[in-house]
């Protein structure tokens, strides 16, 4: 492996599907890049990922290992650092006073690059329900398309009902079992959009249980063991699994704020806002990929956005090289 240069073309923060795809795109054009891997992932504890062609039902840890191994063994211009970036600034770098980026990790080590790709992902914010963490992700799933198929044939619970799209979850859940119950964990909102979603759910024959939940019990590893929901009053209920979409926040919100990146409204997910085809953010030279900038957080989509971000960064670097060459050529002629 060649020595890493003082200044690389791309600093890629995040080594999930988006960051790895961005790294591969840099590698294919012989661009230089450092990938920073904090080893902290949204799908921590998940045994299988789905809807990923050629990798359906694969271990995400194995997926990341293979992707990194292929990059390191075949290409010589990509370096990996197992560390957490705590500071990112746009500033002049190198002797040519190039306006690029400097990042610093938790150990105080600094790195410099011409462009920055934020592939830092997101983090789920769990509700304060005893037993929730112990059942995530073995019996609580946020995506039926990702995990419903393997849990089919057992009773399903929809946890909470505070968004108009909740009826959509009910509709999909019925593809896996007709026994679908909404556990709202208290009274359901009387707001018109929520009530309309509730009406749809009732029309689809979903049951409604508004009792306050006191605890979730993990009965074993399989959906056939299931999860038991206990309430303040009445008898508990045992299900195969629960469906719940907790809100997400940017995993590296500190870096987002340090760089001054524009984000969408919290109601729309709060992720980093991008402009144009190649995912450039509100700060020139900073690109975003994957869950960092997607409302729909899914592996295949994240990989595609990683390639787009790297292409954008590479195109920007190429344009700068052309401008510099033309300027030097004109000066030489003059």
TrEMBL record:
Occurrences of domain FAD/NAD(P)-binding (ranges)? 11-306
Q: Does the keyword ATP-binding apply?
A: no
Recorded superkingdom: Eukaryota
Task: Determine if Cell cycle is one of this entry's keywords.
Answer: no
The record ties this protein, via Pfam families, to:
Pyr_redox_2 (PF07992)
Q: Which UniProt keywords apply?
A: Flavoprotein, Oxidoreductase
- GO BP: cellular response to toxic substance
Q: Which GO terms describe its molecular function?
A: oxidoreductase activity
Q: Which Gene3D superfamilies match?
A: FAD/NAD(P)-binding domain (3.50.50.60)
**What SUPFAM superfamilies does the database record attribute to this sequence?**
FAD/NAD(P)-binding domain
Taking the record's annotation, the residue ranges forming a coiled coil are none
The entry sums up its family as follows: Belongs to the class-II pyridine nucleotide-disulfide oxidoreductase family.
User: Which PANTHER family does its entry note?
Assistant: THIOREDOXIN REDUCTASE 1-RELATED-RELATED
Q: What is this protein called?
A: FAD/NAD(P)-binding domain-containing protein
Species this protein is from: Melanomma pulvis-pyrius CBS 109.77
The major lineage groups are:
Eukaryota, Fungi, Dikarya, Ascomycota, Pezizomycotina
């Amino acid at each position: 492996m060649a020595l890493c240069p003082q200044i690389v073309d791309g600093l890629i923060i995040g080594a999930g599907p988006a960051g790895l795809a961005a790294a591969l795109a840099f590698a294919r054009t012989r661009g230089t890049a450092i990938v920073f891997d904090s080893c902290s992932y949204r799908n921590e504890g998940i045994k299988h990922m789905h809807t990923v062609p050629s990798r359906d039902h694969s271990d995400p840890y194995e997926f990341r290992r293979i992707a990194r191994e292929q990059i390191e063994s075949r290409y010589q211009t990509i370096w990996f650092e197992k560390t957490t970036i705590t500071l990112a600034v746009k500033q002049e770098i190198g002797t040519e006073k190039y306006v690029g980026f400097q990042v610093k990790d938790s150990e105080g080590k600094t790195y410099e690059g011409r462009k920055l790709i934020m592939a830092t992902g997101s983090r789920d914010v769990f509700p304060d329900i005893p037993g929730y963490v112990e059942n995530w992700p073995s019996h609580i799933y946020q995506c039926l398309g990702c995990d419903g198929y393997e849990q089919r044939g057992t009773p399903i619970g929809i946890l909470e009902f505070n968004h108009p799209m909740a009826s959509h979850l009910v509709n999909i859940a019925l593809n896996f079992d007709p026994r679908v119950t909404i556990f709202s964990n208290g009274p359901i909102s009387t707001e018109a959009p929520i009530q309309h979603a509730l009406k749809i759910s009732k029309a689809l024959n979903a049951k409604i249980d508004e009792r306050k939940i006191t605890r979730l019990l993990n009965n074993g590893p399989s959906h056939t063991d299931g999860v038991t929901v206990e309430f303040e009053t009445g008898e508990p209920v045992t299900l195969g699994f629960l469906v719940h979409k907790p809100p997400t926040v940017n995993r590296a919100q500190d870096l987002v704020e340090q760089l001054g990146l524009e984000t969408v409204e919290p109601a729309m997910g709060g992720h980093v806002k991008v402009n144009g085809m190649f995912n450039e953010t509100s700060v020139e030279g900073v690109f975003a990929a994957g869950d960092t900038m997607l409302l729909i957080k899914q592996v295949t989509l994240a990989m595609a956005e990683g390639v787009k971000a790297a292409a954008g960064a590479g195109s920007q670097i190429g344009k700068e090289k052309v401008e510099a060459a033309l300027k030097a050529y004109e000066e030489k002629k003059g």
